[in-house]
Fold this protein.
Amino acid sequence: MNTYAQLNEKLTGRNINGRKIANNTYAERRGDAIAIRLHSTDILTFNANGSVAVNTGGWKTVTTKARLNDYLPNGFRIYQTKGIWYWYQYNGQFHTLGQFTDGDKISLNGKLEIQAKPSDESKALKFRKRVNKYAQRCADALPLSEPGNGDCLYCHFVTDDGKALGDSFKDTSHLESHMNEGYVVPSLVFHAMKDKGWTTDKIPMAAAFGHADFMLDLAKREVKSSVARYIFKRYGMAYK
């Protein structure tokens, strides 16, 4: 199902408005278009005229990439290297086309319209180094004090739905400040580990905040990967 016509054929009868096509993945009508929705994001939108819009919603995950590669038309695929996504196309042989950006489109004539500029790759690689350096700084600061009101407000306070204030406002400027200043924020580390699935009753989380005096090396590894993953995710970048 890599074209509007193929998807349209699948959406008939009681499934005329939508149907499940893979785990957490649905084909759904959007007026005259048909979208491939993964969780709550329309990652592909197929228009009746043959054009296709691509959007991860900032969720550059392994699953998102797999779903895109399952349904992208015309031999287009996405691969990842050093945490950056790139387009390639196979038409008898592989051709690398450029860096992936949300909002890229496949036009009416089947050509790929890429928004990223050549300079974007070097900027992305520099940014990744900054994030990894900051994540290592957080790990080296263990054990940390408990998250408290003295922390960054955007990192510490949460809304009624459990989101950190920075996430609720979709504000990343405070993360920039922390990286620039080298300021290790216990609340940021806490939310990053929680986001990765760790809870306070698990050794890595307990050791990170001084409640266990063993397995500190494990806690440091988990803090580094959790913080890097957390920040990349908020900038719509893949973690590797």
User: Anything to note?
Assistant: The longest helix spans residues 118-140. The chain has nine helices and ten strands.
